[in-house]
Amino acid sequence: MNFMGMNRMKKLLVWVVGMVVSWEGIAQDNPDKVLTFQEAVSIALRNNVTLAQQKNNLEAAQMQRTASLLNMAPTVNVNAFAQQFNGNSFNQQQGRAVNGVRDAVNGSINASLPIFNGFNLLNTAKQTGSQLEAQSYFVKRTTEDVINTVSSQYLQVLLDIELLRIAKENFEAQNIQLNQIKEQVSVGSRSPVDEYNQVGQTRAAELRMLQAEINLTNDRALLTQTLLIDPFAEFEVQKPGWSIEELQLINPNIEQMYTVAKENRGDLLRAVNTESAARYGLLATRGALAPSLGAFFSYGSAYNYQHDIPDSILANNPSINRSFEEQFGNDNVFKSYGLQLTIPVLNGFQSRNRMVQQKITYRNNRLQRENTEIVVKTDVLRAAKNFQVGKTAYAVSQSQLEAAELAFQLESERYNLGVTNFVDFAQANRTLVQAQTDKAQAEYRLIFQKILLEYATGTLKIEGIEY
């Protein structure tokens, strides 16, 4: 083989090795995705549309707050314009009307400062400040809403997986029992009725398994929809590392919880600040009925150029078209300053109409704040009571499961010995499956009740999520 042929063989070998390594890397880098609880919450906070919209509204509220503060500062404008007149016009440089073509350039700096306007601007600034605070608390509560929703859906998927596992194990056990009964019927040690009954039990167990699989599919799809991720993507959920024993040690105090909620609940603090903003808005509207006083100052100059003037006239009157520097810098400079007093007398009751509308807004916001206080108290009471009941329910479900397991074990032995009938055996099996289901539901309900405690007090944060 010549040198070039060997070189091509080396390149081919390198390419084959590279492809093998690449495929191995892909296989290693693409295992089944494990979606942890904290990752699910992080994705939801990043993708949630409502939360993103409220953050945008917060940015707008910040700009509105800045603008209201700057409204109390002086307003400065620079004006400039150039124009040409053809015909009769007043020439400022000559101090008389002229006929012909004239260029004119004007420029000025104007400033104004509000001195008193019935505290309208001050109250408007306070109003926008309260609105900014209200929006920031709205973003906070919306964040907690997202965490609460994702937590509920994530834990529901975990519960569905557990219920599907229970249903599968029951179906497999029923199927094994059916095969055993068939053999016993074939040898005459069992009645055919037992076989028919067991077939019914097996099919019922299979139906429950299929229903559990449907529930898991639906709840998993709902979770992907909330997270705004590809529903076709395969992922596994991971049970958070919360200890049931530690949860059972928590004893919520309703009064303490309500104290914490008053300081942290975003919806309550938003209602308080919204009411405050409406009150400042009412005061600002009343200020529009009072006289206003402002100061103003203007500084400017102008330049004029008259076309088609004979040289003989310009020689005798050089001031007609003086240079730009002379006219704009000295000849036509002007200053004006003073005070302006405005007294509202009659404007079709527009100001009073706005005041009445703002008063109604203030009353409605006060009612909303009072209603939110009741909602917070109710949420705190419900969360605390439900958590205590959840702890008791979990302990009861454990005892129920232990008793059901022991009863099923004894009933199975009695049935295999022919001491008891099929009805009692099937009832013991149903009791065991129900006990397993109740225990799983009680466990995940208790976990979610812990999240609801923090949600009710307004302290639910992604940083505080243990996983």
What labels describe this entry?
alpha+beta; 6 strands; elongated; disordered N terminus; 12 helices; about 70% helix; about 475 residues; four-stranded antiparallel sheet
Radius of gyration: 41 Å
Q: Mind describing the biggest β-sheet? A: 4 strands, antiparallel
Computed structural class: alpha+beta
* Number of H- or I-type helical stretches: 12
Multimerization state: single chain
User: Which ranges are low-confidence, i.e. pLDDT below 50, for 5 or more consecutive residues?
Assistant: 1-31
- Rough outline: elongated
Average pLDDT level: 87
The largest sheet has its strands arranged as 2-3-5-6
Share of helical residues: 55-70%
The end-to-end distance, rounded to whole angstroms, is 63 Å
Strand-and-helix sequence, N→C? HEHHEEHHEHHHEHHEHH
Q: What is the number of E strands?
A: 6
Residue share in β-strands: 5-15%
